[in-house]
Amino acid sequence: MTSSSIVITGLGAVSPHGLGVAALWDGLVQGRSAAGPITAFDASGFGVRFACEVTDPLVDRLPRKLLRQTDRFAQMALVAAEEALVQAGLLGEEGLLADVDPDRVGAVVGSGVGGIGEMTTQHRRLVQRGPDRVRPYLSIALPINMAGGQIAIRHGLRGPVSGVVSACASGADAIGHAVDMLRAGRVDVVVTGGAEAAIDPLTMAGFDASRAMSRRNTDPAGASRPFDVDRDGFVAGEGAGILVLERESHAVGRGAPVLGRLAGHAASNDAHDPTRPSPGWEGAARALRLALADADLGTRDVAQ
User: Fold this and answer.
1) How many CA atoms lie within 13 A of 107 on its CB side?
2) 95 pLDDT higher than 60
3) Residues 207, 183: Cα–Cα separation, whole Å
4) Beta pairing class for 239-247 and 6-15
5) By the number of CB atoms within 10 A of the CB, which of 69, 146, 254, 296 ranks highest?
6) Which residues pair with 51 in a beta bridge?
7) Sign (positive or negative) of CA dihedral 47, 277, 302, 168
8) What's the pLDDT tens digit per position in 234-278?
9) What percentage of the chain has pLDDT greater than the value 70?
10) Cα–Cα dist 261/293, whole Å
């Protein structure tokens, strides 16, 4: 064990399989598809009419005022973060941090589009009803950094808080940033992960217009087939996944459960296309090699 070793002490999830890590894991193990007809809006006139939605209500999990202040993506991050912090043994009375220095606890949460639902809803209000009808919470519900920001406010985290935006890699990159913060000694604990709530008329229409999405409207459960010769696009989904990361020495010192270790990370860019990887997958391969090197491992050390 070294002072730079990073461990996972808490897990939290909100997914189309249900609220909580147990529901997500059960759905994955059982191989159940979460795809179904869109219920968030009337999609009858859309080319793509299905997605993987979170249908479990969040209203019972958060205070009413907080629900008013936040977009759906931040609400899911908040619910997942609470589960992770509880498992890590970091919450005391009134849901605030306990037995750790709050100045040394940060949050980094990624999202590709952030509060897109808030933006499109308030834009419709502006156009249809005028500027006086745009709600005052727009300015704090829209920014991507407010997933981590609201987690910090609710639980009393006073370390660095930020958001990461890198499309589909946002959550993974957020975890990488959290690891770097821990290794640099700026914090002892980081709440990190990703959240997305982009099943919105505008985003669904845009992705469909780019021909990026599967149109298997009559077979939603069989639509997501990324390695199949008949693949015709991706399936939109929503949810949040949050980890509590700590320096191992800090976690051991407070007797926290160690659920896993994060040995290394890396990122790359193949400078090829906004959506398609390079034909030879050089960028992805480079990221894998760099991550192994960061962990001081070789390809033979990876289990098959």
Assistant:
1) 30
2) yes
3) 38
4) antiparallel
5) 146
6) 36
7) negative
8) 999 999 999 999 999 999 999 999 999 999 999 999 899 888 888
9) 98
10) 16
The Cα–Cα gap between 22 and 13 comes to 9
Phi, psi of 148 (to 5 degrees): -65, -35
121 Cα distance to chain centroid? 22
What residues contact residue 185 under an 8 Å CB cut-off, 6+ apart? Answer: none
In the chain, the amino acid numbered 136 is P
Apex CA 138: angle with CA 118 and CA 126, to 5°? 75
pLDDT for 4 equals 65
CA distances from 182 to 85, 115, 160, 187 (A): 17, 28, 11, 5
* Predicted local distance difference test score (pLDDT) of residue 304: 61
Alpha carbon 265 to chain centroid, angstroms: 17
For residue 187, name the pLDDT band (cuts at 50, 70, 90): very high
Reduce the DSSP state of residue 98 to 3 states and report it. coil
Structure tokens belonging to residue 163: 């958001």
> Distance of CA 213 to CAs 73, 147, 152, 234, 281, Å?
21, 27, 35, 5, 21
Model pLDDT, residue 1: 40
Q: How many CB atoms lie within 10 A of CB 276?
A: 9
What are the φ/ψ torsions at residue 287 (nearest 5 degrees)?
Answer: -60, -40
Per-residue pLDDT tens digits for 130-152 = 999 999 999 999 999 999 999 99
The number of angstroms, rounded, from the C-alpha of 197 to the middle of its chain's C-alpha atoms is 9
Do residues 82 and 191 lie in contact, with contact meaning Cβ atoms separated by under 8 Å?
Answer: no
Residue type, 35: A
- Listed residue (75, 36, 83) closest to 57, CA to CA: 75
| Residues 244, 279: Cα–Cα separation, whole Å | 36
